[in-house]
Structure formats: C-alpha cells, structure tokens
Amino acid sequence: MISFFQANGAELILKIWQHIYLSFISLGLGIIVAVPIAIGLTRAKKIAGFVIGLASVLQTVPSMALLALMIPIFGIGSLPAIVALFIYSLLPILRNTYIGLNNVDPSVLDAAKGIGMSNMQSIIQVELKLAAPVIMAGIRLSATFVIAWATLASYIGAGGLGDFIFNGLNLYRSDLILAGSVPVILLALITDYILGKIEYVLTPKSIRV
Amino acid sequence: MLLSLEHLHKEYPGHKVAVNDVSLDIEAGEFVCFIGTSGSGKTTVLRMINRMLMQTSGTILINGEDTSKLDPVKLRRKLGYVIQNIGLMPHMTIRENITLVPKLLKWSQEKRNTKAVELIKLAQLPEEFLDRYPSELSGGQQQRIGVVRAFAADQDIILMDEPFGALDPITRESLQDLVQDLQQRLGKTFIFVTHDMDEALKLATKVVIMDGGEVMQIDSPENILKHPANDFVTNLIGEERLIQARPSVTSVGQIMLKSPIYITQDQPLPVALKTMHKSRVDTLLVTSDNRELRGVLDIETLNDEFNSGKTVGDIMDDKVFYVFEQSIVRDTVNRILKLGYKNVPVVNKDRQLVGIVTRATIVDMVYNALWSQDEDANDQTQIGNKEADIDD
User: Fold this and answer.
1) Nearest-by-Cβ selection for B52 from A114, A126, A129
2) B93 Cβ contact list (under 8 Å, min separation 6)
3) Mean pLDDT of the region A138-165
4) Would you list the domain boundaries of chain B?
C-alpha cells in the first residue's frame, strides 16, 4: 500500500485533480445552461415537452458512443470529454428545475404578479427559492452521473481517474483498478455531501423538511 | 371619478365572449361587489382592472388615466390585490409578506418595520406573528394577512377576488367585519368579487350583478332587493331572501297604524279620561294644536292628578320615544323589542304625529316574514310593499 503510494502518489493526485476539473466544469456548464432553459420553458409550456424529450433522447445515447462521436468534432483531449459530460448533465437538471418551478403553488404566482412583482423578481425572489430543493436534487443526481462517467473520458485522452482503471484492466493489475475506482466513489460521495449542505442552505427555512 | 370602466369587452380565441360591453363608474370610497354565477365574467372584469388580463376592447380609466398606457407592474403596485387562495409567500415571514410591496417600492427597512407593526394591528393579530411563517397560522389568520397586505403601500383601490370563498362561515363573517371596518376607517375603494349574495348585500354600497358576461343590474343593495331588474336577479337573490329582506327595506310609514289615539295638550283631564275610555287604551299621545308630538299621558298619572284641575300638557311625560315615518322598520323593530315599549308614535319630518307602531303590528311583520311563502298574496297587501312588482 505504502509502496504503491510512493510509486504512484504524485500521479494519483494529478488524476484526481483532472477528474475534478472535468466533472465540475461539465456540471457547472450544465447548471448554467439547463436552469435558464427550464425557466424559459415554464414561460413557454407548449415547447417544454419537446425540449425535455430531446434532452431525454440525448441521455439515451450510450456514453462510449457519445464520447467517440465527439472526436471528429472536437478532436481528443479534455474539450470533447467536457462537452459530452455536459450533455449528460443537462437532463436531470433541466427536468428537475422545470418540475420544481411548475410545482410552485399557482396562487402564490398569481399573488406575486398581482401585487406588482416583475417577471424577473417573481423568478428570483419566489420561484427559484421555492423550487430550490427539487432543483438541487437534480443537480446532485447530475453530479453523481458526471463524476462516474468522467472515468470514461480517459478513452479519448482527457485523463482523470479513468486512466488508472483502464491501465489496471489492460495490465491485469487490481491495485491500479482500485486506485482509480475508490477515489471516484469517494469523490462522488463527498460532492453529494457538499451539495446536500448547499441544498440545506438554499432551501428557505419554512419549507425545510 | 376614481375608476371608470368603459365598454369593456373580452373575447377568448374561438369567439368565446367572457365579458360584453361592461361600463361602470366608481367613485372614491365606494364598495362595489360584483356578483354572479361561475363564468359570469365577474373575475375577468376584476383582473382586467389590474391588467392581469387585457381587454379585447374598451378602456379602463383610473383618475382619468388610461391603464393600457401604464406599465402593468407599476400599476399593480398601486392597486391592492387579495385572492381566494390567499397567496402568501410560504418562504417569507409574515413581516416580509406584508411589506413585500413596500420593499418592491424600495422603502427603507425602518419605514417597512413601522408599517408591518401598523398592519398587523389592522389585521387584529398579535405582534409576535410578524416573525412567524404563513404555515404557522390558521387559514383565517392567513387571509387577514392577505387582506392587510393589500393596504401596505397605501393603495387607494383594493381588488378582492372571492377572498373569503374558501373559509368556514364563522371565519368568513369575522373577515367580512374586518374588511367593513377597514373600509369605514380608511375610506378605501373596494372592488370585490363574490358569489355569496349575503356577503354582497352586507358589504356593498353598490352591487353589480352579472350573467354570461353582461351586466344585469347595478344598484344599491336596498334597491336591488326592492326592485330586482329581471328574473335572473330575482333568482340569484332568492325568494327567501327577498321575503326576509322586506323588513329591512320597508319604511315605518308603510306598516304603521294611521289613526293613533291622541289628545291636544290644552285639554282638561276629564276629556282625556273620556277619550281613553272610549278608545279602550291606557295611554294617550299628547300633541300641540298643529299635531306636533309633545308627550305621552298614561292612566296612572291621570288617576293621581285627576282632581288637580290641571291640563293634559301640565302632567304629561314629555320624554317620549318616537320614530320617523321614513326610517327603516328593521331598526325600529330592534328598538321597540329591546327597550320594551308597548308602542311607538310615528312622526313626519315636522315632528307631527302621523301614526303609531304597536307590538301587534310587529308581530304581524314577523309572522308574514316567516310564513308568507305560503300566503304571499296576503303578505303583499299587509306590508303594503306594492312596488315589489317591478316595471320601472
């Protein structure tokens, strides 16, 4: 164990860093894109079904295939991996944000508009706050997906903990496989824990369960 | 004119007409109730006033300003708005909820806090409630907050869309009292939508009855009860309510006995005794020569003073309770019953005696109100409410 760390410690830390970098950038982009789209969809319910359907279709593309499809467009390296992971992160966030916003009591929205809140004020001060737990659940789900699938990014040369796992598989070395997968699991658990804390803070006191 | 609706028309796609040619002028301080069945367009009219809906044609003027040319968000901040489902923000404290509009208007924190305290008092709720969340309050308490929220930025016009429809009867009544109190105290103008006729009759100074998007009748509650414009209005008010309403719209002059027993004040006492004996009464009303009511003389006083040689005017009791001919029976009934008078003289504007209301007359009224469903024809003549047949 100690000798393993002595031999691979520096590389492990680099891979963990690459993994965090890949997954968090994709997740961040996913949030930045999916939340505003979902807000837009609540104002244009006619196309909501179509857009969410499209996101669901993207979700069903096998992950290996999606990564491979990125190569002709973006080449190899971290860019295609980030794009692919970003596409995967969209659906849970999009769907949960849309559902969360749609579930806000219509009479609260009617009152917000009726007493003179602008559309923006209603979204920021009322809708997003009340939908926060549902939106955060979507983000946590996406985070877990993205961290798990970022291992596959190693196939298109993006690095990350997948490098250890695939090396281990190729060389029949279980210590390398473990050195890749245990940090992935820990990373997913820790991220989920932190996001859980953020969810708690963002959820208004009166609607915490 | 504070608020004018001019030929409002609202049509939904597929030529579904929700509101057709509604015109109405509302003065400051009025309490206007829109009433009608579901789909009558009453809520649509209300929501067009604060531009939650846009009319297809027609204009709405507030203080002479065309609302379609105003920014809807700014317009809504000037109009109080209370809805049936309360619509308090569940994630905000009561304090934040009632001062939401002031916050949107960028009042200082200090000014908002003062306002919050003032408003919670208006709602007749304890100050501790300010730091609670809506879910910690009962439905009735929440709607009290919903009501006072509409006053937070000193809005002059308060729009209420069936605000008490979802509350139990007792809570509803206490909230109606609150609204009535606020109207009288603050002199605001209310536009109130309801489907509860009792509520409309209790609160309104002007009732607008709507059906199928059109106005059936606009009038004071009294006049609507007295002269329903058509069969729809009669049905909406309900037969029972029309009958029960009679005491409240009938004047004393319509039910009084027109030949009271009276004596002028300069008569000697033996004449008074004779009059009592002849008419078989124990009390005489005393008037001046021109029938102006001066007092009352009863048999005990007459007996005590019989041989004193005084006149009726000397020994009468000049503290006499009377009612005016034009006053409403309902008030009179209460006073007669509560004060225990056997009878009450009725005078005209010049205090001249014109009639008398006795307990027997009141018994007739109550009897007719309760039983007249079977004997309606009989009842009509008794009460003399002949205008009930509407043709004007």
Assistant:
1) A114
2) A206, B130, B131, B132, B133
3) 92
4) 3-244, 254-364
User: In chain A, how many domains are there?
Assistant: 1
* A55-78: pLDDT as tens digits: 889 888 888 888 888 889 998 889
Question: What is the token pair recorded at B220?
Answer: 């004071």
* pLDDT at site B245: 66
Half-sphere exposure (CA, 13 Å, Cβ side) for B281?
17
Rounded distance between C-alpha atoms, residue B179 and residue A186, angstroms: 60
Cβ atoms of A81 and A158 closer than 8 Å: yes
CATH value at residue A31: 1.10.3720.10
Q: In chain B, which stretches have pLDDT less than 50? A: 373-392
Give the nearest partner residue to B90 out of A110, A116, A206, using CB atoms: A206
CA distances for B12 relative to A189, B17, B39, angstroms = 53, 6, 13
CATH 3.30.870.10 is held by the domain B254-364 = no
CB B245 within 8 A of CB B225: yes
What range defines the domain where residue A161 resides?
Answer: 2-207
Q: Which tokens go with A150? A: 């970022």
- The helix (run of H) or strand (run of E) holding residue B31 is strand B31-36
Question: Are A121 and B100 inside 8 Å of each other by CB?
Answer: no
By Cβ distance, the residue of B83, B93, B134 closest to A114 is B83
Strands B189-194 and B157-161: what pairing?
parallel
Q: Measured between CB atoms, does B77 come within 8 Å of chain A?
A: yes
Minimum distance, in Å, between the CA of residue B3 and any CA atom of chain A: 18
Architecture of domain B3-244: 3-Layer(aba) Sandwich (3.40)
pLDDT tens column, A166-183: 999 999 999 899 999 999
Q: Hey, are the CB atoms on B87 and A111 less than 8 Å from each other? A: yes
Q: What's the confidence (pLDDT) of residue B388? A: 41
- State the ipTM, two decimals: 0.83
Which residue reads 């004119």 in tokens? B1
Q: Name the token pair of A58.
A: 């993207």
Q: What is the mean pLDDT of residues A86-113?
A: 94
Q: Minimal CA–CA distance to B211: which of B187, B233, B226?
A: B233
